[in-house]
Amino acid sequence: YDGNGSPMLVEGLAIHTYACNSDMDKEAFVNSDGDFLIIPVKGQLDIQTELGRLLVFPGEITVVQRELKWKVTLPDGSATGYIQEIFGSHYELLNLGVVGSHGLANPRDFEHPVAHFEVDQTNWEVIYKLGGKLFTCKQDHTPFDVVAWHGNYVPYKYNLDFFISLGSLTREHIDPSIWTVLTARSMTPGVALADFAFIGERWDVAEQSFRPPFFHRNTASEVLGLIKGEFGFTGDFVPGALVLESGFGPHGREDGPYNAAQDMELKPMKILKGTQTVLLETSMMMTLTEHATNSNRRQSNKGGARGLEAKFLKYKDQILADAKAAGLGLIPGL
């Protein structure tokens, strides 16, 4: 879909979509470029690794690190989803700071496999991804013959329903960084190479506020994906789709949702019921792949043609009256 950097530079990331309808048989895969964060949208993934097995459902995520051998079978017959791949770094939990000892994604909720080995002396094929290219080799035994292991370089999975969302109890819309599940450091101190955030069902109680994200620009590039439900972003944003907001690109709600949020009664309400949205953020600018650019499924953003109007000008008469009463001069252009 898109990305930046390179595994050969030991820094960067790539965002992929996947669709599969066939099991891997006597095959294994090794990503020599980086770590995969896999986000199933439809269909379970039965992932067998050198260090054991993980059964991953939609609504869960899994991380398989660089250079580990693994294969996938499909209990449901087919599967689709997203992958965030990072080069030169590893995913880790946030430093919670003033949040305290627990919140957001808690370490206790992550699961890792236990040793699981097979005795198989038949021919296998191992597929390596190196420098963005695929290579194969043959061997006369299964790669999944590790009897026992110790250490912490191990794949893991996490159920997004366990995530503890934070938000404002008074006013204003909070930056979505408070929904970060995992982060990966860049070579620049204090700057993330990639963040994985989760936006799900939660209570909204902010007062004296425009509750949805207001019109803004980010230094980071954002890619939104939908696992299930409705996010209300655009009618084309369905499970399996991706939306890219480039760094410093202005964006916000369309006119209809904007007006509804502006006029709504600000009472406590549960939002995004039954919805699971993922946010893939990076400090880097992203380059679209040729497939993403030229696909007939691409939906161009209509930008300034979406029926937006200058809300400020609706109150021109009141503004001029207030300025005159305060002894201020005319505002140029009004």
From TrEMBL:
GO BP annotations listed: L-phenylalanine catabolic process; L-tyrosine catabolic process
Active site per database record: H173
Pathway annotation: Amino-acid degradation; L-phenylalanine degradation; acetoacetate and fumarate from L-phenylalanine: step 4/6
Ranges for domain Homogentisate 1,2-dioxygenase C-terminal: 163-301
Enzyme nomenclature, EC number: 1.13.11.5
PANTHER family xref list: HOMOGENTISATE 1,2-DIOXYGENASE (PTHR11056:SF0)
Obligatory cofactor(s): Fe cation
Residues that bind Fe cation: H216, E222, H251
Superkingdom, taxonomy of origin: Eukaryota
Record protein name field: homogentisate 1,2-dioxygenase
Family: Belongs to the homogentisate dioxygenase family.
Keywords: Dioxygenase, Iron, Metal-binding, Oxidoreductase, Phenylalanine catabolism, Tyrosine catabolism
Annotated positions binding homogentisate: F231, H251
Organism, scientific name: Phanerochaete carnosa (strain HHB-10118-sp)
Any one GO CC term of the record: cytoplasm
Gene Ontology MF: a single term: metal ion binding
Root EC class: oxidoreductase
SUPFAM superfamilies noted in UniProt: RmlC-like cupins
UniProt xrefs under InterPro entries: HgmA_C, HgmA_N, Homogentis_dOase, RmlC-like_jellyroll, RmlC_Cupin_sf
Domain Homogentisate 1,2-dioxygenase N-terminal span(s) in chain numbering: 3-160
